[in-house]
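Try this one yourself first.
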């Protein structure tokens, strides 16, 4: 759902027949925080993992109660993987799932960059002109 083009909440209600969702993964940040919470069912989970529009600040935790006893988390890789061995194991598992087709990686042609163009890839990402994944190719 492109929050700049349509109401996140209305679109989620349309997709779910008004039931909303159990989990929201929000990579945008401050611009979608409130709408993301409004998409959750009672006791739903908000996973905030990005700040594309800026960090969420000044949060009154009481809003989680008011909107249905919601949960919110801000996970990081460092909270799950702390040793080189854990990183190697998780990476091997991920790449195995990708290679077997269980996880599909779909990157738009205009978001694939030669490694020598990494600077350009970062500029485009920082300008928020991307959607989905970008890929650096060695």
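Now uncover the answer:
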């Amino acid at each position: 759902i492109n929050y700049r083009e349509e109401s996140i909440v209305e679109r989620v209600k349309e997709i779910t027949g008004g039931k909303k969702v159990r989990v929201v993964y929000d990579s945008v940040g401050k611009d979608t925080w409130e709408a993301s919470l409004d998409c959750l069912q009672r006791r739903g989970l908000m996973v905030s993992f990005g700040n594309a529009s800026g960090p969420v600040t000044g949060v009154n935790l009481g809003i989680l109660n008011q909107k249905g006893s919601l949960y919110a988390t801000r996970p990081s890789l460092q909270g799950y993987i702390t040793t080189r061995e854990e990183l190697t194991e998780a990476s091997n598992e991920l790449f195995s799932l990708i290679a077997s087709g269980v996880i599909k990686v779909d990157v738009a042609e205009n978001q694939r960059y030669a490694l020598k163009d990494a600077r350009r890839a970062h500029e485009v990402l920082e300008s928020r002109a991307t959607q989905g994944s970008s890929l650096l190719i060695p």
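Discussion: The chain has two domains: 8-75, 80-137. The chain has a mean pLDDT of 94.
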